[in-house]
């Protein structure tokens, strides 16, 4: 089982759209679980699942709890959801009271290792105890970045945090999201990073209004559309899979 976190310190960079669409693509040939860790519950909404967990956060992370009890089926084969819950807003506090505060998500997911091939984590924007749990539970961090100076700054902050907390072995795969080729800055930054910075995925997701319309369809874009952006998500998933191969 591979755990793939879609993560960025910054919000509004396309994390949820990436998690929702990659999970659907992966489920065409594998058993997939998507855990919506963001209390806003956008990924849960897209998959038409009620944003509620019985017992709330304590029901998920307590000593006697099992993550399997919270899993809901989606409308798509091979794709299950752990929905968001508004109690997730207090996750840092709950984790801080645990005996091993940075290992709780890893512990919860370990029980599912024989049930799924991929677990996708749709992560809230923060750098916190929740983030440390995500880093410790994940096999790879996929980091969407808008091609701007501020967005690149958040990547540097993430890399610095990982070095400081002995997470150098955690693979980090940044890629450009919401890229607008009409903008000179976007083109310059993409060319600079892909030309001289190791680790960046070559696939990028263009800015497109179709992504914003996912809320109307309440489904992954790749499940119903036939546009260039669908091919972009397919390329992204293929490249991630290739990078994860031993």
Secondary structure elements and pairings:
Layout: E1 2-6, H1 15-27, E2 32-36, H2 42-46, H3 56-61, E3 72-73, E4 79-82, H4 91-96, H5 104-110, E5 118-122, H6 129-137, E6 140-145, H7 149-164, E7 172-176, H8 184-196, H9 209-212, H10 214-217, H11 228-244
Parallel strand pairs: 1-5, 1-6, 2-4, 2-5, 6-7
Antiparallel strand pairs: 3-4
Helix pairs in contact: 1-11, 5-6
Account of the protein in words:
The protein is of the alpha/beta class and 246 residues long. It has helices at residues 15-27, 42-46, 56-61, 91-96, 104-110, 129-137, 149-164, 184-196, 209-212, 214-217, 228-244; strands at 2-6, 32-36, 72-73, 79-82, 118-122, 140-145, 172-176. Strand 6, helix 7 and strand 7 (172-176) form a beta-alpha-beta unit. Helix 5 runs parallel beside helix 6. The longest helix has 17 residues, at 228-244.
Sum this structure up briefly:
This protein is α/β, with parallel strands linked by helices and 246 residues long.
Tag the structure with descriptive keywords.
246 residues, seven-stranded mixed β-sheet, 41% helix, globular
């Amino acid at each position: 089982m591979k755990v793939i976190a879609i993560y960025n310190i910054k919000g509004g960079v396309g994390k949820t759209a990436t998690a929702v669409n990659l999970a659907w693509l992966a489920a065409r040939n594998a058993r997939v679980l998507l855990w919506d860790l963001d209390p806003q519950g956008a990924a849960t909404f897209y998959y038409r699942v009620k944003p509620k967990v019985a017992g709330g956060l304590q029901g998920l992370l307590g000593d006697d709890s099992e993550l399997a009890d919270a899993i809901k089926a989606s409308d798509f084969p091979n794709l299950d959801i752990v929905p968001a819950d508004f109690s997730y807003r207090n996750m840092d506090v709950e984790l801080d009271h645990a005996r091993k505060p940075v290992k709780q998500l890893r512990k919860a997911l370990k029980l599912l290792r024989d049930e799924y091939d991929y677990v996708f984590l749709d992560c809230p924007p923060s750098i916190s105890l929740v983030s440390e749990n995500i880093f410790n539970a994940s096999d790879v961090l996929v980091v969407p970045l808008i091609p701007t100076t501020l967005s690149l700054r958040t990547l540097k902050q993430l890399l610095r945090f990982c070095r400081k907390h002995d997470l150098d072995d955690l693979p980090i795969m940044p890629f450009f999201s919401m890229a607008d080729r009409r903008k000179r800055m976007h083109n310059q930054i993409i060319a600079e990073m892909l030309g001289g910075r190791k680790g960046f995925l070559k696939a990028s997701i263009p800015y497109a209004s179709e992504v914003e319309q996912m809320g109307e369809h309440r489904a992954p874009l790749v499940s119903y559309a036939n546009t260039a952006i669908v091919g972009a998500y397919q390329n992204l998933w293929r490249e991630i899979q290739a990078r994860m191969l031993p």
